[in-house]
Write a structure and sequence with these properties.
single chain; mainly alpha; ABC transporter involved in vitamin B12 uptake, BtuC; two-stranded antiparallel ribbon; 14 helices; 2 strands; globular
Amino acid sequence: MSRPLTTTTNTSDIAKRVLLAVICAVVLALPWLVGPYSLQLFILTMTYGMLGLSFAFTIRVGLPRFDSAAWWGIGAYTTAILMTKADMSFWLTVPIAGLVSMAVGYVVYRVAIPRGMMVFLMFGLVIALAIQQLFGSVEFFGGWGGTEVMKPPAIGGLVFDGKRELYYLGLSFLVVNLVCYYALMHSRIGRSWNAIGQSLKLASSVGIDVVRYRMANVLISNFFLALTGSFYMAFSLVAVPATFGLHKSLNVIMYVVIGGIAYSLAGPLVGALILAFVPEYMRVASEYESIITAVVIILVVIFLPGGILGWVNKQAKPWFIKVDWTKLLGRAKKPPGPPGSQ
């Protein structure tokens, strides 16, 4: 009885390793396989994916948010202002942007989080609108025309001014996001967040400080949203208020829903990939882009309520595991020897 179970487990492990190896190889080789325009879409996919990761992160404590783009913008503007007005290195502005986002977030959400999810949502909606107006109305931030053009980041003689260089820079930011989120989700504080997301009363009954843990979750999310803003500035070199509007926050929610809200790490990346590419390659005219995006979202919600990854897990994964990867990889099973042999 134990042999079939062991064989199935080994096959599943091999399948996962094969899939992971293929994905890593494709991701690393991608800049050499696609053209500049497609590579630009992949850079945007990584940016949107990091925004989606932050939304999925706060969902774990039962706090959906409408303000992702606001904190993304705070990170972008912090980097842009420090580089253009203070002539600071890009690499120094990145952690500063994260800390500024956390500090402002603490001031705002120390009032909202203790009052529950609905107040948090309303505060987020107000923040999303207010931050955009602030950037556009105050001359210090460049007004509605945007900031001054900043210099591309550099390390010694390596300047990140080309699509390939920016792709690998974005990939580095994305890997840092994934590693940190994974470590946090599987830590002691991550288990407390899961308990809060499942039941506030139950979490409180076992001694978890719900407000404190929620605040920590949101501030960490703010930090990584700001880091995403810093990376976006390396790509765009100009911060424009229209980029960080409420509609971008709504798009972030769609990345998570389409990819699969139950898949906190992979789901946002898959959703961002789909929403970055489908409207572009199905575009007939720019005025139809929102319609095409809406149709894709509706179809996914109706026919794939668990998201793309939910469908893959139910339909494609069982087939993938059934494949005899030992034969496909040239690792034929060793025939059993005669009785008594080693």
